[in-house]
Design a protein that fits this description.
Oligomer: single chain
Strand order of the largest sheet: 2-1-3-4-9-5-6-7-8
Shape: globular
CATH architecture of the largest domain: Ribbon
């Protein structure tokens, strides 16, 4: 978490003292100083106040080390163009850590998914989920595991546990990436994504050709987790020639989009 260093950096960029910022925000200097020095942790209301004052999204304030981004990106941020957000209004990701302060991997099984759809932003709900660790995953990234149901993503079997890495900036996703997507209407779905930001939507594809693709508006998406691996007690069936062809088509679509962007 980078709130402490980000507050200090942004304040200095504004050429303001701690007294001036605290006075403007209607808080005591000691209170603001405590947040900037890491002595105290602000609540959601205070984070929203900092977000409004500095013009930086709450998620970016907390999760992005602004000292490590380029000067041009920082200038974009301060001009109101946040490169770490695309589409929905992002929030502080509710998460848990173990006794060594390493982020847990929370498990959302099939039965818990209805509750997750309602409670994904509730820290109390997230703390009730089962947790575990996988030592081969990066401690610098956030992961969560979801149990999938159905056969729309064969050869990944029904009932598999799919782990995804939390995606803050959806622009980094590539067409054809398999992702776990939390939608407001359909709940948790596991699909191959195709970006269509001109129409402010994603097109979601299944590996199983029996299932039709469908569109989801960006504002209807709450979270995206990029596929990392899955765990299953079943051996997957080999890819059919049709499924292999589908993956080739998805890759070709990605290349076509890149060519269109270059021409524009």
């Amino acid at each position: 978490m980078y709130l402490r260093s980000n507050l200090k950096l942004l304040r200095k960029r504004k050429q303001r003292t701690q007294d001036e910022v605290a006075t403007f925000l209607g808080m005591k200097r000691s209170t603001y100083s405590g947040y900037e020095n890491g002595v105290a942790e602000p609540g959601i209301a205070e984070l929203q106040t900092f977000s409004d004052y500095f013009g930086v999204a709450m998620d970016t304030l907390v999760r992005v080390d602004l000292q490590k981004i380029s000067e041009s990106q920082l200038n974009q941020l301060l001009e109101g163009v946040d490169p770490y957000i695309r589409g929905s209004r992002l929030r502080i990701l509710s998460t848990t850590v173990n006794s060594e302060n390493r982020e847990n991997i929370e498990l959302v099984n099939e039965k818990a998914q209805a509750g997750y759809r309602r409670g994904y932003a509730d820290p109390e709900y997230i703390r009730e989920l089962p947790v575990f660790q996988l030592p081969f995953l990066s401690p610098e990234r956030k992961y969560r595991t979801f149990q999938i149901s159905g056969d729309s993503m064969l050869p990944i079997p029904d009932g598999s546990y799919v782990t995804g890495e939390f995606v803050e900036n959806w622009e980094y996703l590539k067409n054809g990436d398999p992702c776990i997507i939390l939608t407001k209407d359909d709940g948790v779905v596991f699909k191959l994504i195709q970006k269509d930001f001109r129409r402010k939507q994603f097109i979601l594809h299944s590996l199983n050709k029996v299932y039709d693709s469908f569109q989801v508006a960006v504002e209807e998406i709450a979270e995206i987790w990029k596929f990392v691996h899955y765990i299953s007690s079943e051996m997957p069936d080999p890819l059919t020639s049709e499924q292999e062809l589908y993956q080739v088509v998805a890759n070709l679509k990605d290349e076509v989009e890149k060519l269109k962007e270059q021409r524009n």
